[in-house]
Specification:
By secondary structure, the chain is an alpha/beta fold. 32% of the residues lie in helices and 23% in strands. The longest helix is centred in the N-terminal third of the chain and has 13 residues, at 68-80. The termini are far apart.
C-alpha cells in the first residue's frame, strides 16, 4: 500500500530542443523529488528541477545501459521511497510514440501508484519540421505513418502501406539500406524523395537528402548516425524551399559542442545562455553571486528621503537601478523623488534599465566603466556625487571623482555575497572551456572557487580589469555591452 504522496509523471521531453518542452512538463519537473532521464532527453531540462535527485537511465540504440524492466522497477521503487516521492520520468520525444511509456505506466498500475502522462512533441514531426519538411502538404500528402526501423521487432509489412503518402521512420538509420530495398520491393518507386535528419531540432542537426534508392548511401557518405529520422515521400522535396532552420553544425559555429560556463546571479536571467545554446554551445549556468538587502537600511532611507545637497546620483549596475526603485516603493516614493538631481549611468545597459522606468540618464560615458564615468562626468569641482551601490563597490569611481575635486558619497543600496555552487556544478565548472563574467564580483568569486587558469569572456573593460587584477591572464572582452557581444567574445576565446 503506497502513500498518497507517491506520484509518477511520465513526461515527453520533446525531440531535443529544450524550448519544445511543454509547460505541463516544466511544471511536473519543478515539483519532482526525483528525475529519471534517458539518452534522448536533453539534460538541460534538468535545470527545471534543481531540487530533485537525478538518475540517468540511458538507453541508446541497440545497447541498453539499463533494461526496460529495471527502469520500470526503479520508477516504482523511487516513488515508494521515503514514504512516497514525486517521480518525473523524462523520456525523449513523446511518452507513447515508440517510447515504451505504456510499459512504465502499467508498472505504476500494478504497484498501485497514481501517475499522469504528459505528452511530448515527437521527433516524428519535429525533426522533419526543423528540416523544412512538412509530413502533410495539400496536393502531395494527405496521410502519413510513423514506423519503427527496429527490425528486432519483426517485419513491417510495408505492402500494407501502399496508400500512405508520407512514411516517417524512427530508429532506422542502421537498417536504412534494407528498409529502403524492402519499400521498393513493396511497390514504392526508387525515385521517391527521401531525407534523413540526425539530432533534429538541436544545434547538432544535420540532414542528408536523396531518393529511396540513394538515401542509404547519402547517409553513409554524410556520416549520419542515430538518433535520426527518415522521411520518405513527395514532401521531402519541399526542403529546398522551406529550409528555415540552419543549425550551428551546418553553419560551422565555433561554439558547437564546446563547454561554456555562464556565471550569473542566483535567479538571474538566462538570456546569454539561450544565445550560446542557439550557437551550439553546451552551457552550464553557475550562480556565483547573490544579492541581499542592505545592512544599513535606515541610513539609506534617510538619504533617499532627503537628496538636498546632492548634485549627481551615480548608478553602476542594473541591480542598483532595481534596488533603488524597490527602496523608493518601500518609502512610498517614486521617480519624482529624483527630480532634483542628475543621473549618471556606468554604461548603456544601466541606462536602459533607467529608461525602462521612465528616466533618461543625464550622462553615460562613451566607454563603459567606473573609471570612465568618474573621469568624464560633466560636474564641477565642489559638487557632490552620491554613489548608490553595494558594499563591495570598486574604488575607481571615488578615486577619479576626488582627483577632480568632487565630493564622493556612497550609500549601500544592496549587498553582494558569494553564492556557493553545488559540488557537481563545481566539477562541471572546472571542465568549462571558457567562462563568461558579467561583473567584477563574479570574477573575484570565480577565482576564489576554482582559481584563474581559465579562459574568460568579460562583459566590458571594467569586468576585464577586475578579472586581471585577481590573476586571470586569458581574458577576452566583449566589443560592446550586449549579450550578443559577450557570446562573440566567448567564441573568439575558443577560436584561440
Amino acid at each position: 500500500m503506497t502513500t498518497t504522496r507517491a506520484f509518477v509523471s511520465l513526461i515527453g521531453a520533446g525531440p531535443g530542443d529544450p524550448g519544445l518542452l511543454t509547460l505541463r512538463g516544466k511544471a511536473a519537473l519543478e515539483s519532482a523529488d526525483v528525475v529519471l532521464f534517458d539518452y534522448l532527453a536533453n539534460p538541460e531540462l534538468l535545470r527545471h528541477a534543481p531540487q530533485a535527485t537525478t538518475i540517468y537511465v540511458g538507453k541508446k540504440g541497440f545497447s541498453e545501459y539499463i533494461g526496460q524492466e529495471q527502469i520500470n522497477a526503479l520508477i516504482v521503487a523511487q516513488a515508494q521511497q521515503s514514504g512516497g516521492q514525486r517521480v518525473a520520468r523524462l523520456k525523449g520525444g513523446d511518452v507513447f510514440v515508440f517510447g515504451r511509456g505504456s510499459e512504465e505506466a502499467q508498472a505504476c498500475v500494478d504497484a498501485g501508484i497514481p501517475f499522469e502522462i504528459v505528452p511530448g512533441i515527437s521527433s516524428a514531426i519535429a525533426a522533419p519540421a526543423y528540416a523544412g519538411i512538412p509530413v502533410t502538404h495539400r496536393g502531395d500528402a494527405r496521410s502519413f505513418a510513423v514506423l519503427t526501423g527496429n527490425t528486432e521487432e519483426g517485419g513491417a509489412h510495408y505492402e500494407r502501406l501502399s496508400g500512405i503518402d508520407t512514411l516517417v521512420l524512427l530508429m532506422g538509420v542502421r537498417n536504412l539500406g534494407t528498409i529502403a530495398a524492402e519499400l521498393v520491393t513493396a511497390g514504392r518507386s526508387p525515385d521517391t524523395p527521401a531525407a534523413t535528419i540526425q539530432w533534429g531540432t538541436t544545434p547538432q542537426q544535420r540532414v542528408a537528402t536523396g531518393t529511396l534508392g540513394t538515401i542509404a548511401e547519402a547517409v553513409k557518405q554524410a556520416g549520419l548516425e542515430a538518433p535520426a529520422v527518415t522521411v520518405v515521400g513527395e514532401v521531402a522535396r519541399l526542403r529546398e524551399s522551406l529550409n528555415w532552420f540552419r543549425s550551428p553544425a551546418e553553419r560551422g559555429s565555433p561554439l558547437l559542442g564546446r563547454q561554456v560556463a555562464v556565471t550569473r546571479t542566483r535567479g538571474g536571467s538566462s538570456g546569454l545562455s539561450d544565445l550560446l545554446r542557439a550557437r551550439g554551445a553546451n552551457v552550464l549556468e553557475v550562480p556565483l553571486i547573490r544579492f541581499e538587502e542592505t545592512g544599513e537600511p535606515d541610513a539609506l532611507h534617510a538619504r533617499l528621503r532627503d537628496l538636498s545637497g546632492v548634485d549627481w546620483v551615480a548608478l553602476s549596475s542594473n541591480q542598483a537601478v532595481s534596488a533603488l526603485f524597490a527602496h523608493l516603493e518601500l518609502l512610498n516614493l517614486d521617480a519624482r523623488a529624483l527630480g532634483g538631481v542628475k543621473l549618471a549611468a556606468v554604461g548603456p545597459s544601466t541606462a536602459r534599465s533607467l529608461a525602462e522606468r521612465g528616466l533618461r540618464a543625464d550622462y553615460v560615458p562613451p566607454t563603459p566603466g567606473a573609471r570612465h564615468l568618474g573621469e568624464g562626468l560633466p560636474a564641477s569641482a565642489g559638487q557632490t556625487v552620491l554613489h548608490l551601490t553595494s558594499q563591495v563597490a570598486e574604488a575607481e569611481l571615488q578615486t577619479a571623482l576626488e582627483a577632480r575635486g568632487l565630493r564622493y558619497v556612497r550609500a549601500e543600496l544592496y549587498r553582494t555575497v558569494p553564492a556557493v555552487p553545488e559540488l557537481n556544478e563545481l566539477e562541471r565548472l572546472k571542465a568549462a572551456e571558457v567562462i563568461t563574467l558579467a561583473s567584477g564580483s563574479a570574477a573575484r568569486h570565480l577565482a576564489a572557487l576554482v582559481g584563474t587558469e581559465f579562459k574568460v569572456a568579460a562583459m566590458g573593460p571594467q569586468t576585464a580589469d577586475a578579472a586581471r587584477e585577481v590573476g586571470f591572464t586569458q581574458v577576452w572582452v566583449a566589443a560592446s555591452p550586449s549579450l550578443d557581444a559577450l557570446a562573440d567574445a566567448a567564441a573568439e576565446a575558443l577560436s584561440g
